[in-house]
Design goal:
This protein is mostly helical. The protein is about 70% helix and about 0% strand. Helix 9 runs antiparallel to helix 10 and helix 17 runs parallel beside helix 19. Keywords: Repeat, TPR repeat.
Length: about 450
């Protein structure tokens, strides 16, 4: 039977008839102002808090804002001695805090929170143990776990992971919905390489708070160690989307990149590489072997400018536009860029890239002191001379009957002579210098 058909002892009043239209008209909430008399009819429905409860909440807010003195006055007036002791301890008056706690415990020896706070002030495990004994107070076990994780120097103890996990587990049993407790539990699991425990802990973390970037990231780290790469990648995707993006660490994107490589998701590898380059904006943000793999995938397909895929467009922009703005002195990178420029039918740009690669290594201050740098310079010289020979006679950029490098033979000879003069005093009897002399004979034979 519906409410409108229910038998009534009294007829429907006018107020009841107009109630829904006047008071709960959600479609047009401001069409009619209610009189004070009508509003006052429903005051008795408001769940008003007692003054002491409102004062307690006010004191808690004052503590959050750092106004401990004002909060302390309220706690003492309300005779909440444990909270007052916390305020005294935070202001450095530990003796007064202990006095108040002892007063509270004299009145109520079973106050587990007071025992725990006393343990926090004295840093004495016996008080936390007492708190757990009398009231299973979760924070007491939390404090014990932190104590054995980072024991005071005067205690003479060393970090004891077994006790840390034991006490933290008890804490979680008593309070299984606290984010911070699960996060600490997971971090300890990562430290001792118990990745199954860590994965479980961080899973509980992200269940409680889906916006925690670092919880998602740590979950991914544990899953990687458990060889669950796809699950780890999914967790990292949540990590890069969660929380405040302006405060996100570049290391999360680096992990994202590495896991994407392991599962072979090259679209995401490219995306992460671009983001890392934007965030760090330096040469260290570029993983050159990964960049080479991306380029190999790119040039493995035929270049059609009018029919490029999104991956191809994005990769070309990354390699040919973004990377050169950040990396200027790495010969290996310039050779990779040259490969892409040649693939897209721009040999004049490829030749410029080889010239930049050679200049990057030949101008190194370690050229005359580090044989590895010298050998790299010799290799770059070989590649540049080969590029002059291969690209020099090709049609130029504008296709107006010109060539890319008309005097390529002269430039080849000048390049070899210049490097010989730089290295003769130091590397005259090295293998690299002998290779350079052979290259000189070859270029001199070109008429």
């Amino acid at each position: 039977m519906t409410s409108d058909k229910t038998a009534r002892l009294f007829p429907v009043t006018e107020d009841e008839t107009n109630f829904s239209s006047e008071f709960l008209n959600l479609s047009e909430p401001d069409t009619k102002l209610l009189t004070n008399a009508k509003r006052s009819k429903y005051l008795y429905l408001l769940p008003l808090m007692p003054k002491w409860a409102m004062d307690t909440e006010l004191a808690e807010k004052l503590v959050e804002l750092g106004s401990l003195k004002s909060a302390l006055e309220i706690y003492e007036r309300l005779e909440q001695w444990t909270d007052a002791a916390v305020c005294y301890a935070q202001t450095g008056n530990a003796s007064r805090a202990e006095e108040l706690l002892q007063k509270q415990l004299d009145n109520n020896p079973l106050d587990s929170r007071a025992w725990s706070v006393l343990g926090d002030i004295k840093q004495d495990p016996q008080y936390w143990e007492k708190s757990w004994e009398v009231g299973k107070y979760a924070n007491a076990k939390k404090s014990l776990a932190k104590y054995y994780y980072n024991p005071p120097k005067e205690s003479g103890l060393t970090r004891d992971y077994e006790k840390v996990l034991e006490h933290q587990y008890d804490c979680l049993c008593a309070n299984p919905i606290d984010f911070e407790n699960w996060y600490f539990y997971g971090c300890v699991g990562l430290e001792i390489k118990n990745y199954k425990l860590a994965a479980e802990a961080f899973t509980r973390c992200v269940t409680n708070d889906e916006t925690s970037t670092y919880a998602w990231s740590n979950l991914a780290s544990a899953l990687v160690e458990l060889d669950k790469m796809q699950e780890a990648f999914n967790a990292l995707k949540r990590a890069v989307d969660a929380g405040d993006k302006s405060k996100r660490s570049w290391r999360i994107w680096e992990n994202y990149l590495i896991v994407a490589v392991k599962i072979g998701n090259w679209d995401e590898v490219l995306y992460a590489s671009r983001v890392l380059l934007n965030i760090r904006n330096n040469e260290g943000s570029l993983d050159i072997p990964i960049m080479e793999k991306l380029v190999n995938l790119l040039v493995s397909q035929h270049y059609e400018e009018s029919n490029l895929s999104f991956f191809q467009k994005s990769c070309i922009e990354f390699v040919c536009k973004m990377v050169p703005q950040v990396v200027n002195h790495n010969a290996r990178v310039w050779r990779i860029i040259a490969k892409v420029d040649f693939w897209r039918g721009k040999p004049w740009l490829a030749l410029e890239d080889y010239e930049k690669a050679y200049r990057a290594v030949s101008s190194s201050p370690d050229l005359t002191t580090d044989e590895a740098i010298w050998n790299e310079a010799v290799e770059s010289c070989h590649e540049l001379v080969s590029a002059y020979e291969n690209f020099g006679e090709l049609p130029g950029k504008y296709g107006a009957g010109d060539v890319i490098c008309k005097d390529w033979k002269f430039k080849s000879k000048s390049t070899v002579r210049s490097l010989i003069s730089k290295g003769k005093a130091t590397w005259e009897y090295s293998d690299g210098f002998e290779r350079l002399q052979e290259l000189k004979k070859e270029v001199m034979s070109n008429k």
